[in-house]
Structure formats: structure tokens, C-alpha cells
Amino acid sequence: MTAPAQTKSARLLSPFNAIATLVLVIGGIIFAVRFVKGLAATTNLDNNNPWGLWIGFDVMAGVALAAGGFVTSSGVYLFGMKEYRPVVRPAILTGFLGYFLVVVGLLADLGRPWRLPYPFLISPGWTSPLFEVALCVALYLTTLLLESAPAAFEWLGWKKLRTVVGSMTIALTILGLILSTMHQSTLGAMFMATPTKLHPLWYSPYLPVHFFISAVAVGLSMVIVEGAISHRVFHERVEITRTQFDAITLGLGKAAAVALAVYFSTKVLAIALEDKWHYLGTRYGLWYLFEIAGFVVLPCFLLLVGYRERRVTLVRIAAGITVAGVVLNRLNVAMFAFNWRLPWEARYWPHPMEIAVSLSLVMAGVVMFRWIASRMPILHEHPDWKGTH
Amino acid sequence: MSVSRRGWLTGLVAGAGVLAAPTAQGSGTTRFSGHPGRFGLLHDTTLCAGCRACEHACAQVNGLPKPTAAVGDASVFAHERRTTDKALTVVNRYVAPEGARPGVYRKQQCMHCNEPCCATVCLVKAFTKTPEGPVLYNPDVCMGCRYCVTACPYYALAYEYDDPLKPRVMRCTMCYARIKEGKNPGCADACPTGAILFGKRSELLEVARDRIRKDPGRYVHRILGEDEFGGSSWLVLAGMDFARLGLGDLVDATTTPLPEIATSYLSVVPLVITIYPGLLMGMHAFSKRKEEVAHQERVAAVSEALAKANEETRTKLAEAAQKAEKQKDAAVAQAVKKALAEAEAAAQKEGAK
Q1: Best of A33, A106, A127 to disrupt the B interface by mutation (most B CBs within 10 Å)?
Q2: Taking the CA atoms of chain B, what radius of gyration do you get in angstroms?
């Protein structure tokens, strides 16, 4: 392969690498401490609060943030939106790394992670929403691996294998969309078991719908944000023109705005369905309104304005707000609005060590993406395979 | 909170019943009312003296550390406590109405639900509702995901957070082993006031109803655990509002078993698997066809344009040729005319000579 000279950002001794190493080392140490001293020593979890940041962020938000892969690949390969082809590979890669890190993060949280195959091989609990999530995530991680394989095989020059995985594209895309619809929504359905514990404003029979639609919105937004950053960092590798890329960003922004608008409607519907309007006047109501107005309505509006006036930067800012909003939503469901009836002192707040591990997972994703994108044909097409994917 | 209006595509909810009750047989349209003759316990909080002998007995029969506060030591009531991995039952004191007594006490432990949600949400089937009544937990398959702890509406399940490698979920077993031996659970045997009664659940319900009937002023006319979230093996009688006994969450709880609510959405999931492939392949076919039609239309348009252009060219050529012909003819005629005229002129000249 024709590797361009080492880019400035990829030099071994750089401020980024120093920070990344520090974050990863700290995360790794805490990960090890968890297996020596237990969750009690590394987290603020207790009997009232069995799930914390490692579930709320690493799993709930992590899976949503990795939704860009199935959204873009479906658009391009199933619905014929060919002009978005340049963002599929980075989105699939982000998805694969995201899901991989969800599983890594889960290893720290699970009491006995080496029993990960138990649900499939030893004692399947068919009735559990979590069983469905586990099965889907396992299958989807495999799907994403196969979907990201073409780039790796092109890089390695394994032409036959590349042709084989390339011929599976449509099947894999359909499988990915099925599995994503299932587990993105079921992650929300997991909380349907807790009608007394999750605050009524967040608890709803529509939880699965809310989780799925917001995953579509945040998937698109992550592609915008990730694209903006990687096109800046790797601009010498990018082949498409700035005009082309701006058109893609604007298009994705418009799609994200539609997803947010639909999401907002289903949120209103959920409140109306069970007549929960009176909760809006409470303190939790204010927090809920803050989430909805600041992180759903506002970015939706900004995305529309950005699209209409062709202001790419505005679309990127709005996409960033959407990403933050979906993270906030998952944290609200899993942590801040959970156990709302318990007294304040019995409530959960993440321990610094929990935050450090979550940060190191994000950092690991960034480092792996950079390593792969600076070697494999992710942001550009391999000269031997132009126009074939 | 109202969960009565919950429910997915209403017709599908019935199907969820199959998934909802792991111990139940039958389809979503029939209801399994539980194993007949199963055991239960009745805690009459109007009889409880708050001595905490049950806590001590529980620790002893389960081989757990002895509670630090002795039987009768009321200092522990300063703060509301909950069950932990080392105390599978705890007694709390609540403010009594009009200071009739120093307080009202309620014992807390796993309720042994008729349809336990912990069992439903467990992805390794670590929980079993036994025909005898107790819900049992199997640490040999547990992954330690703690979904059961999250899902328990009674905050009754605990977990060994300080065990790094072999943490277990810890909860009351209703002294299953002792029941099998024909003995009473440890707490029931230890209770000096008769506030804890062990027996067949159906009979305990009769006892509880009888007590309310005989002394209607003494009791709230409700047996907690009879049908909240589908009911439980433990039943509670109270002389004051259950909400003031730390059970506010459950006062307006639905009678629908929690597993049914928890799994109602799962009936939609198989639909995704069955509908999506056809739907998506259809959409793919549509977008492909659209492309093909567009391509064909483009080809047709081009050839038509070409044909039209050819036609025009041909007409123009023909016209030009015709015009040229005409011009040629005119030129010839003119030349002939000129020649004739010249010849005539020459002849006249000749004649004049």
C-alpha cells in the first residue's frame, strides 16, 4: 500500500499522545484494582444503586453513540443514497470500536465477566430484555467486524477475502439494521421493569421507541462530529472536495433534524399518553424540560437553520449538542432520574475512579480510530478498489 | 404512577405473558395463579415490638455475621436501614400515629413474589420460583450484572460489592432448606410476639382477613403483598397507611405482575426479525429499480435526442441539397438564357452587316 509519510499528529512524542497515554494508564490501573479489591473500592455503587456510570455511560450511551454505522450503511447500501458513501467507512469503524469498548467496559462492571458466554451456552434466560441485548450486541459486533473488514483486507492486499466480504455488503447491512433496531430499543425496554424507580417523566411504555429514535439522531450527529474532526486531522488523506463534504454534512444535519423532531413528538406523546403534565412543574420537571428544550428542540432548530442557510459550522455545533443530549438522556434514565423516590443521601453519584475508566474507554476509541484511519483506507478509497464499495 | 395504560400494540401484549412468567404454563390468554399450597409469611406490624430477634435468628441460620446491636437495642432505629449482603432482613421503626407507641416496626426482606421480576430479567436464569413458594438464586450461573437488584421494586436484593472475583446476590431464601425439613423459617421461630406467621399462603390470607374483620379499627383494610405487582409470598398487615411504613412506592402499585410490564416490548422484537428482511429487501429493490428506471430513461432520452438530431440533420441536408439543386438549375437556366441572348445578339449583329 502507498502509505503517505507519517503525519504530524501521528508522531510519537506529541501532547496528544502524552495525554492519551496518561488517561489510558490511569484507566488500566483502576481496571486492575477493580479485580483485586472489587466494585466497592472502585465505584460508588451500593445495594440501592446497582448500576452507575459504567452502565449509564459505557453501555447505555456508548451503544447509542455507535449507531452511526447502521444509519449510514442503510442509507447508502439499502436506500441508494450513494452520495453519502464517503462517510460510511468511518461510521462503521466508529461503530465497531464503540461496541467493542462497550463490551470492554462491561467486563469491569460485571461481577464475573468470564461468564460472558453463559447466557448463550450454559443457562439462557430467554425472558430477559438483557438477554436480547446481549445476543444482539454479540451478533452486531461480529457484523461490524465483517463490515469493517474490507478496509483492512484492502490495506493488507488480501484481494480474494476482500471480494468475499465485499459481496456480503447488502446482507450485512440488513442484518445490522435488524440487530440495531432490536437492541437500541430494548436498551430502553430494560427500564420498563422499574415503573416505581424511574421517574414518571422518563418512564414510559414508549421507552424503546425513545431509545431507538434518539439513537438514529445521535448516530447521524456522531458521523457529523467525527467527520469534522477526522477531516481536520487527516485532511491530507481525504479525497473528496470540501464542497462535497459540506454537502454531506448538511444532508446528515437535515436527517438528524428530522430524527430529533420525530423523537420530540414521541416524547410529547409519552407525557400526553399517561397524562403526566403535572410532573413538569416539579424539580424533576425542570430538569426534564432542560433536557428536552436544550438538547432536543434547540439542536433540532439549529440543524434546520444550518441546513437552510448552508452554515456547516452551525450544523456541526448542533450535532455536538445532540450528542451531549443523548448522553444526558441515557444518564438521566440510568442514574439521575432513577431511584428518584429515595432520599438524597441514598442516591448515586459516580466515583472519580468510575469517571476515569469511562474517560479512558473514550480515549481508547479515539486512539484506535486514529491508528486505523492513518493506515487503512477509511477516509479515502484504496486505488485498487475505487468505486467498488 | 399509572402503568395501566402502558402496553404495546395491545393485541401483542397478551403474547408477552408467555415470556413474562417463567414458571407459568399456558399461553398469554390464560393466567397461572401460582402453585397451590405454596408457603408464605405474614408480618403483622401491629404486633411487632421491634426487638429484632428475627434479624439475629436470620444471621444465625444463614451463617452471616451477628448484628452488632443486641436484641432490643433501639439505637439502630435512628436511621432507616435496608437489607445488605450481610443482613438479609432488617427491621425499621416508623413514626406511629398520635404517639400511641414509640413507633411502628416493619420487617424488610425479599418478598418472594408470585411472579418475581428478578427471575424474569435475569439473562442466565439464576432465579427460580419454587413450587413451595421461595424464590431461589443460583450463584453458579450468575454473571453479576445486577439487573435483578435494579428491577426489584422492594429494594430487597443486595450484592457483594467488596468481593472482586466471586460476588453473589444476597437475599432471603425464606429458609428453603428448613422448610423442606418441615421447620419454620428462622425469623418466624424467633419472633416472641407472634408478629411473623409462617404457613400456607392461602391460609395466611384467610388469617389476615380474619384479623381485619375481627378488629376493623386496628387495621388498614388491605393486605400488602396480596396482589401488588401480582402478589408475593410475604404478606404485611398494618395499622397505619402503608406509605408511612416506607412502602409509598407500592401503595398505588398496579396488580399487573411486574414481569408482564417488563417484557411487554419483547413481543415486538420477533416482529422486527420477521418483517425487516422482506421490508428492507423491498426497499433496496425499490431504490435499485428507481436507479435502473432512471438509467433506462436516460438511455432512451439520449437515443431519442440523437434520433431527433439525425432527423433534423437529414432534413436540413435535404433542404440544402434541394436549395443547391435549385440554385444550380437557376444558374444553368441563367447561363442558357445568357448564351441564347448572346447568340441572338451576335445573329442580329451579323444580320445588320
Answers
A1: A127
A2: 46
> Measuring CA to CA, which residue among A148, A112, A152 is closest to residue A1?
A152
Tell me if A62 sits within 8 A of A211, measured CB to CB: no
| Partners of B41 in beta bridges | B198, B234
Nearest to A110 among B5, B145, B262 (CB): B145
* Beta pairing class for B39-44 and B234-237: parallel
Q: Helix or strand or coil: residue A205?
A: coil
ipTM > 0.90 for the complex: yes
Q: Are A35 and B164 in contact (CB under 8 A)?
A: yes
- 8 Å CB contact between B58 and B172: yes
Distance, CA of A349 to chain centre: 22
Which of A250, A223, A193 shows the shortest CA–CA distance to A50? Answer: A193
What CATH architecture does domain A17-375 belong to? Up-down Bundle (1.20)
Give per-residue pLDDT as tens, A334-364. Answer: 999 999 999 999 999 999 999 999 999 999 9
Q: Is the pLDDT of residue B3 over 80?
A: no
Interval B53-80: pLDDT, tens: 999 999 999 999 999 888 888 889 989 9
Query: In this complex, is the C-beta atom of A120 within 8 Å of any C-beta atom belonging to chain B?
Result: no
How far is the C-alpha of B171 from the C-alpha of B123, rounded, in Å?
A: 18
Name which of A152, A148, A186 is nearest A168 in CA terms. Answer: A148
Whether residue A12 lies within 8 A of chain B, CB to CB, comes out as no
**Grid coordinates given for A385:** 478498489
Burial degree of A202 (CB within 10 A; 0-12, 13-18, 19+): buried
The DSSP 8-state label assigned to residue A56 in this structure reads: I
- Residue A84, burial from CB neighbour count under 10 angstroms (0-12, 13-18, 19+): buried
Partner B contacted by A40 (CB < 8 A): yes
In the CATH scheme, what architecture does the domain B10-267 have?
2-Layer Sandwich (3.30)
Which runs of consecutive H residues, i.e. helices, occur in chain A? 15-37, 39-42, 53-55, 62-65, 68-73, 85-109, 118-121, 129-156, 159-167, 169-189, 207-233, 242-273, 283-292, 298-308, 312-331, 352-373
Q: What are phi and psi of B123, to 5 degrees?
A: -85, 0
